[in-house]
Amino acid sequence: MSKRAVLEVIALDVEDAVAAQAGGADRLELVTDMAADGLTPSVAVFAGIRAAVDIDLRVMLRLTDGFAAGDVERLVGVAAELRAAGADQFVLGFLDAHGGVDLPAVERVVGALDGCAWTFHRAIDRAADRDALRKQLADLPGLDTYLTAGAADGVDEGLPTLVAEAGRRGEPGYDQTLLVGGGLRLEHVRPLRSAGIDAFHIGGAARSAGWAGAVSEGAVREWRRALDAE
């Protein structure tokens, strides 16, 4: 039998978080301001969600739209505040002007996380060289997941890359979990599960009314059923 798939849902507030857990989410990605593709939520929002649900929470560390690190020292300070409030899993990822990983920025922020687990987010889908990025990050403490659609334009385009990367597990830079998200639809589940991929990330797909509305418990439950059926 296939390993139970992880379902991660984007949550903006307590209402989202409660609905996502009730629908069967295993983990939440906490963000604010989806108009900027998801920025770091406040400590107060994190604390409220942490008090409301008991599933894992990964908190975005990103202060501005785009994939540049921006003010790294401020990011480090924000990470420290979240750690002090009890956050123990994070999401981050920074590129330089040439599409390479901004390794100094990533290392500086990761150094403030005290070994916590973290996801390198969809910046990988904008990288000039995915393989090189993975190998540069391979030994950083706490990195256990890549959130990726396989391509900048989403899973429809990136599916062959995702399947190929899933087949490289065990090679240097390829031991991290592939968490698939970005234009993900229910019809993608079967080929991804057949390739051995067992982690899925949804945002708008968890909201019956789109980003204008809250997370729908029913929409999340539909995804839970689909993943459990494979």
UniProtKB/TrEMBL annotation:
InterPro entries: CutC-like, CutC-like_dom_sf. This is Copper homeostasis protein cutC homolog. Gene3D superfamilies: Copper homeostasis (CutC) domain. Belongs to the CutC family. One of its GO terms (molecular function) is copper ion binding.
